[in-house]
Write a structure and sequence with these properties.
Layout lengths: L9 E8 L1 E2 L2 E9 L2 E5 L2 E3 L6 H13 L1 E17 L6 E16 L9 E8 H5 L9 H10 L23
Enzyme class: hydrolase
Organism: Cupriavidus yeoncheonensis
Protein name: Phosphatase NudJ
Length: 166
Amino acid sequence: MCIMPRDWNASVTVAAVIERGGRFLLVEEETRDGLRLNQPAGHLDPGESLIRAVIRETLEETAHTFEPRALLGCYMGRALSSRTGTDVTYVRFAFTGDLGSLDTGRQLDTGIVRTVWMSADEIRACPERHRTPLVLACVDDYLAGKRFALDALYTHPSVLATGDAS
């Protein structure tokens, strides 16, 4: 039996798995461990749904709009927080969908160096550069055809700042 500390809690994150022509959109970002690769991803903010969070995070990290079409899956992993250095359990909701227009005047989020397009083989060839092992797990599930309807997710209006249940 594993006993968790009393102050344990999970950190909820979202990620966008975006593929075009056999290549996946990743961001290269500064971390405590140096430059790492990740899907456009980030934390769920108070008052937003998971879908709104992935739309926002994709825009902030890539300057592109994003229209989620399916839930790819829910993933859990543990890592040291790049902000606090503490052990954190991450719960990642990964989505796939359509990449929209680029806002050429938009600055990328703090810590994001650039966006890159990589094939699955290129991603597999550099696991030491992944921000988390969940990067490759999401790519593998995408390639395996895993997709779940977005209506599998429900957000009660009491959670949302605007009352919008999407």
